[in-house]
Design goal:
The chain is α/β, with parallel strands linked by helices. The protein has 8 helices and 5 strands. It binds P1-(5'-adenosyl)P5-(5'-thymidyl)pentaphosphate. P1-(5'-adenosyl)P5-(5'-thymidyl)pentaphosphate (T5A) binds next to helix 1, helix 4 and helix 8. The site of P1-(5'-adenosyl)P5-(5'-thymidyl)pentaphosphate has 24 residues, from helix 1, helix 4 and helix 8.
Length: 198
């Protein structure tokens, strides 16, 4: 039986990594493959350089780089799913829609990703919903912030964009909005129960 493809989305610092590790341990660490975008490939490396601000890329270039990274990523994701492992992915195309869709034409970014047969649809997407100011508070210990983490107003616009996208996808995708301002274990129990339903 094929594994389940589970995606976590949210603003930077919303608690995705924390919940991914909890879910993996609840499902059984050996039964899941944990992955993230941008990936650890050469394209992913170029994206991270751009996110750090040390390499200049236009929003259109960024959208195309994330797309190429995702197409390669899907080859790996597909292998694990076919082997019966659940795949848990930290960010996916919803991030391209929210972040690049803010600065490029959203419909173009959506069409490139959703119209590509090499990019699979997740079984479920959990959106970790926390206010931008709370996210910033959680990230306050970090030495360096990436380009999308520096500006509170931009984070608010990104959150709004995520909700615009979820509204557009409400009939075609399984998206669960999670109140991620609660206690870590309360959130984890809700997510595990929702995954158990799939
Ligand atoms: N991007 C990505 C695009 O622009 N387009 C795309 O298509 C894609 C795929 C990636 C960047 O790339 C952009 C968006 C992003 O800006 P990243 O470096 O991978 O960024 O980092 P993030 O995905 O943002 O992950 P972060 O590590 O910043 O945040 P997380 O994983 O959401 O948060 P986490 O779990 O590390 O938690 C942050 C802190 O909060 C605490 C944790 O202990 C930690 O200290 N915390 C809680 N505290 C209290 N209560 C809770 N419930 C808590 N949950 C966590």
């Amino acid at each position: 039986m094929a594994g389940r493809f589970i995606v976590f989305e949210g603003l930077d610092g919303s608690g995705k990594s924390t919940q991914i590790l909890r879910l993996a341990s609840k499902l059984g660490r050996e039964k899941v493959f944990l992955t993230a975008e941008p990936t650890e490939t050469a394209i992913g490396g170029t994206i991270r350089e751009a996110l750090s601000g040390s390499l200049k890329k236009t929003p259109f270039e960024m959208a195309a780089l994330f797309l190429a990274d995702r197409i390669s990523h899907n080859i790996l994701i597909g292998k694990h799913l076919e082997n019966g492992r659940d795949v848990i992915c930290d960010r996916y195309y919803y991030s391209s829609f929210a972040y690049q869709g803010l600065e490029c034409d959203l419909s173009w970014v959506m069409h490139m990703n959703l119209g590509c047969s090499a990019i699979r649809r997740p079984d479920v997407c959990f959106f970790m919903d926390v206010s931008p100011s709370y996210c910033r508070q959680r990230m306050s210990q970090r030495a360096e912030l990436e380009i999308f983490e520096k500006d509170l107003a931009l984070m608010q616009k990104t959150r709004d964009k995520f909700f615009e996208v979820f509204s557009l996808l409400k009939d075609s995708e399984n998206i669960k909005i999670i109140d991620a301002s609660r206690h870590i274990e309360t959130i984890s129990e809700e997510i595990f129960s929702l995954v158990s339903e799939i």
